[in-house]
Amino acid sequence: MATLLIGYDVETQDVKSEATKLFLKVAPKLHRELNAPCTFFICGKTLENNLEEFKKVGAEYGDLIDFQQHTYSHVLLKTVFQENEHGKTLFRGGTLEQIREQVKRPIELLKEHLNVDCIGLTGPYGYYRGLADRPDILAILHELGIRFIRTYARDKHDWQPVAFEIQPFWYEVQGFPDMLECPVQGWQDCIMRGEIGWDNRDEYLKHIKQDLDYIAEHDLVWGYAQHDWSSIRGDADMSITRGMIEYAQKIGVELKSYLEFYKELL
């Protein structure tokens, strides 16, 4: 059965921004109304800046919304060398020492403030082949208790879209057979909406529905990525997300949180 895994990168760190607070008011209610499980991948610094809001969401929606992490302050796990029609751009990854601290801190924060045992992580920006070529990073994550990751989010040019045929896989060859990769296929919302225009909500939703038709026809798993700030930009009531969820349900695509999906595969 085709499956949609909705994951939000909750990452806004500017204390002057209201994006995360607004997102936390709208998204949980929408998911409750539609009975649609999802996962919030939270930056540790974002959690610290919005503690009371996250506590409220955890208390009221914890049965539906899974909390995992997005590093502490959005440091990349791998260097990204992006090639597209706009040119070539390099985004440097963190050192192994930085990565360890960036992952360790949110684990502690989620446990202390939300009583969450964090075993899932999204890698900032996403990477070609995920961490298949970095067993050294996988070893750090595994040691810290991470068991599922969402890091395969770019093609061979470190760009997008990622083919839907790239499906979840275990890092068995790298020596971590209990660690699952859940790729982000297609386009991340902020990139696609930027390409077609932030105000062009209808065109973006049309594209999303076409992708849902594709995974339904081919019985695939879609790891879909949105962000706190982009979910409400030009769409304060998250009408795009509503349309996506309602259409997925209409055509028989099952919605799950990443934690639920991981546990079912164990």
Explain this structure to me?
- The strands form 3 sheets. Strands 1, 2, 3, 10 and 11 form a 5-stranded parallel beta sheet that branches. The chain has a 4-stranded mixed beta sheet with strand order 6-7-9-8.
- α1 (19-34) packs parallel to α3 (51-61), α4 packs parallel to α5 and α7 (201-218) packs parallel to α9.
- It has one domain (3-265): Alpha-Beta Barrel (TIM Barrel), CATH 3.20.20.370.
- The chain has helices at residues 19-34, 44-49, 51-61, 96-114, 135-143, 189-196, 201-218, 228-232, 239-250, 258-265; strands at residues 3-10, 38-42, 65-69, 80-84, 87-91, 120-128, 148-154, 169-171, 176-181, 221-227, 254-256.
- β1, α1 (19-34) and β2 form a beta-alpha-beta unit.
- By secondary structure, it is α/β, with parallel strands linked by helices.
Proportion of strand residues: 15-25%
Q: State the oligomer.
A: single chain
CATH superfamily: Glycoside hydrolase/deacetylase
Task: Give a short account of the largest sheet.
Answer: 5 strands, parallel
CATH architecture: Alpha-Beta Barrel
3D shape? globular
* Derived structural class: alpha/beta
Number of strands: 11
User: Mean pLDDT score, rounded?
Assistant: 98
CATH topology: TIM Barrel
